[in-house]
Amino acid sequence: MIALKIYSCKIPGDLRIVSCTVKDIIRHLLEVYGTVEDLILFELKVILNELVSNAIKHGNKGDSSKFVKIIVGLTEKENAVVLIEDSGKGFDYGCFMKEDNSTCDMTDVCSIKETGRGILIVKSLSDKMKFNHKGNKVIIAKKLSRG
Question: pTM score > 0.70 for this model?
Fold first, then answer.
């Protein structure tokens, strides 16, 4: 997979800058790609907000001296590829990556623990989702067109 026009940044672990970081990323993607359908753009914003916020809150434990690395690229096949990496110890993502999530003890979305919903939402909105072995780096792919 060849990524074109990479956006890369390293942000401090401060939740107050998540919104402006997501706006910068979206602006970059629109400049490189062009027009994106509103629903896809909304889903991409949710994905970015959730992953960056999780990296700060859970990965870096809210420690503002730690950083979150963000790399976003656009592939030749019109996919946005997003990599988010925090400085934390990682987490056990295994049950979130199973197709049916049955081992996560989730009968419906409302019964899921507050800290588990975001990853499931991101997974459902992404075309692909993968974690490194440690669990402190996630890569997602999101198609920017429905065609």
Answer: yes
